[in-house]
Amino acid sequence: MIPSRVDLVKFRDRKIYVKRDDLLHDCLSGNKYRKLYTLIQTPSEKYTKIISYGGAQSNAMLSIACLCKSKGWTFHYYTKNLPKVLKEGVEGNLELAIAEGMIVHEIAHKDFDKEIMELKDIQEEKTLVISQGGADQTAQEGVSLLAKEIKVWKKEQGVDKLSVVLPSGTGTTALYLKSMLDEGIAVYTSVLVGDEVYQRQQWRKLSEGPYPEVFPSKKKMKFAKPYDEFLQIHEELFASTSITFDLIYAPLTWIQMLENLRDKDGEILYIHTGGVSGNGTMLQRYKHKQARRR
User: Which residue in 28, 147, 236, 264 could disulfide with 180, CB within 3.0 to 4.6 Å?
Assistant: First the structure.
């Protein structure tokens, strides 16, 4: 793996470094490449079938679909019943993943948790079950490479104090990154799914710590809901940096990062975790929202 480059940008009068993990791979972008790194290195003959589950527009879903196609593995993906609008016109990451050969299985909302528990117990030969979002201990190898890159970059740049910032869905990347970086490097994350209590519960399933610092939330935000302030900072970021960030995870993380670290000593390194393939469907949701206001 070639280390992802680091770009220096200035946003709202604050100098911030951006580690461009979004450029690691055309399809397996961002932290999904890191999480799936062990599987990328795995010989194709080890598996014939991969199973995973989660949301119908998941970034991890698309990355796993691309990986399976490259390996010649069959990919079965389980998700809650698709909404009518998506069944009538498949789009976004779901469309892209199906084009990569993914087989979709819909589960009724009321049965989802039960059936996922049964999936996790599957012991079929040459079959691997990947947890939602790639939240698995196998993610450690790829994240360890990210940690090494950060430490090398910090030394080469002569940076004394460093704050590393990244969004969290499952929080897996942030969790392992915290454990692999030096004590002098702080790791901060924004929780996008659930709240801090829920996030720590997820972390405890994988590790006893140490855990990243979680940015405090001023108000409860629903996951993947189109908020005006998210679109505003997304557009402002592109205008100022010429970098396209994702519309679900990055906006809140940048808002909270600027609120909490603007005056903090040292340098800030934001990890661009990819996910921009989902921007098209999110932008449509913003257009629908704006149309309803007229």
Answer: 147
Number of C-beta neighbours around residue 12 at 10 A: 12
> Could you tell me the two tokens for 40?
């990328």
Which residue from 184, 93, 198, 187 is spatially nearest to 135, judged by alpha carbons? 198
Residue 159 lies in a domain: yes
Distance, in Å, from the CA atom of 136 to the CA atom of 183, rounded to the nearest integer, reads 24
Strand ranges inside the chain, DSSP E: 6-11, 14-19, 49-53, 74-80, 103-107, 127-129, 162-168, 185-191, 213-214, 267-271
pLDDT in single tens digits along all 294 residues of the chain: 679 999 999 999 999 999 999 999 989 879 999 999 999 999 999 999 999 999 999 999 999 999 999 999 999 999 999 988 888 888 999 999 999 999 999 999 999 999 999 999 999 999 999 999 888 889 999 999 999 999 999 999 999 999 999 999 999 999 999 999 988 899 999 999 888 898 999 899 899 989 999 999 888 889 999 999 999 999 999 999 999 999 999 999 999 999 999 888 999 999 999 999 999 999 999 998 888 876
Q: What is the CATH classification number for the domain harbouring 183?
A: 3.40.50.1100
208 burial via Cβ count (<10 Å: 0-12, 13-18, 19+):
exposed
Maximum C-alpha span of the chain: 56
- Is residue 59 within 8 Å of 172, Cβ to Cβ? no
Q: What is the DSSP string of 10-38?
A: EETTEEEEEE-GGGS-SSS-THHHHHTHH
Among 81, 113, 138, where does a domain finish? 138
pTM of full prediction above 0.85: yes
Q: Domain span at residue 67?
A: 32-138
